[in-house]
Amino acid sequence: MATDRDSVLEAAVGVLSRRPTAHLDEIARAAGISRATLHRIFPGREALIREVGATGLRRFAAALDTAQIDTGDAQSALRRLVDALVPDAALCAFLAGENQLYDDPEINELWEIQDARVRALFLRGQQQGVFRIELSAAWLSEAFFDLVAGVGWAVQDGRLAPRDSAYSLAELFLGGALRSPDQP
Amino acid sequence: MATDRDSVLEAAVGVLSRRPTAHLDEIARAAGISRATLHRIFPGREALIREVGATGLRRFAAALDTAQIDTGDAQSALRRLVDALVPDAALCAFLAGENQLYDDPEINELWEIQDARVRALFLRGQQQGVFRIELSAAWLSEAFFDLVAGVGWAVQDGRLAPRDSAYSLAELFLGGALRSPDQP
DNA sequence: AAAGAATGAGACATCCACGTCTCATCTGAC
DNA sequence: GTCAGATGAGACGTGGATGTCTCATTCTTT
Q: Would you place residue B184 in the very low, low, confident or very high pLDDT band (cuts 50, 70, 90)?
């Protein structure tokens, strides 16, 4: 059943994004199954990690698709991306913390593709005059992903309400921490 | 010799901030010593991790001191903090990635103190009318730390020039990604 | 109800990193 | 030159997580 795999992956993300070194016992318990069944679904720890990473990147790509980041003005596109990405923020947190994943050429290539898409969005926004040109598109892209991961961690730990997460992310990233002089 | 400990800690940060599960062999090699000597300096892996964490928090506290974050207007204080913190960004990246550290009550308490100081800075800035009040001080504090850690990773991986890091961090965090309408 | 599959619990064996040890080598002080 | 201390290299035992196995139990299907 695909549902089994998915629910296990979901549980694995919840545990691994917080503690990447969690034992398989813990992951199995979080998924509500036994360690034996976990091994029946995934050949081993490495395969599980790989699968979680691949799932994360697929969801990331899907969020880029649904947000239609190549359409319309860049600011709206980014806001759509935030909305599409926030539900999977935990997955992004996992991707950000698991540097080991990028030893895998396949995973790495998948990541490069998505990262390039986000960079293109910022570049487009800079050409539109929407985004600041003093900051490189690469840095904007990286910082954006850092903040998405930060949202994932904060929500998981209860430091940020899920309801506030999209707003907090978009407003801080787009407008910064400073109070706008023209909005008193 | 204190120099030995410090240089080993420095090397450990460099390795552990990228791969928290790195073997002691690797850390020893990065420090230019043998695994035996590493064990002579630190009783074991746990002690080493703890020490790195404690060092990171001490440096973080020192940066808060040198920046005098309680003095003057909040924006200038934050800019001073960025300048003081950026040299230790890798250390912050390590702290951000090593959630396991916060199981230790002593480390956790030390972290809470520093985090409260940063939160107080943002609260003060909000009361001064400098920082936006739509975003909670806790979120501003957390997001700021996420970006500092992100700078640490990016610099270590060569994706961000150290020379640009303080500027990129301060500008993005304070002003956001949007181009200011009053600065054409 | 009965047969089959799926699962959980637990018992192993294996592997790998860690921690400890010894010994040879190197360095520096006298 | 000699000796004491420090270091490196390597061997060795240990612990813990992983991977594989068996068997009893439960759930599903007919």
A: very low
CA nearest to B130, candidates B72, B80, B45 = B72
3-state secondary structure of B131: strand
The encoded tokens of residue A80 equal 């759509």
pLDDT in tens, A76-108: 999 999 999 999 999 999 999 988 888 899 999
Count of residues making up chain A: 184
pLDDT at A184: 42
Percent of residues, chain B, with pLDDT higher than 70 = 96
Is strand C in 7 Å reach of the CB of B120? no
C-beta contacts of A45-49 below 8 A and 24+ residues apart: A48/A12, A48/A24, A49/A16, A49/A98, A49/A100, A49/A101
Residue A10 CB burial class (10 angstroms; 0-12, 13-18, ≥19): middle
**Measured between CB atoms, does A108 come within 8 Å of chain B?**
no
> Quick one: which of A37, A41, A39 has its CA closest to A6?
A41
CA distance B89 to B93: 6
Q: Is A183 exposed, middle or buried (0-12, 13-18, 19+ CB in 10 A)?
A: exposed
Q: Which DSSP state fits A178?
A: B
Count of residues in chain B: 184
* Residue–nucleotide distance: B20 CA to D23 C1' (Å): 40
**What single DSSP character describes residue A72?**
S
pLDDT higher than 70, residue B2: no
The secondary structure element, H or E, covering residue B40 is: helix B35-41
DSSP structure string for A85-120: HGGGHHHHHHHHH-GGGGGSHHHHHHHHHHHHHHHH
Residues of B in contact with A173 (CB under 8 A): 172, 176-177
What is the DSSP track for A9-29?
A: HHHHHHHHTT-TT--HHHHHH
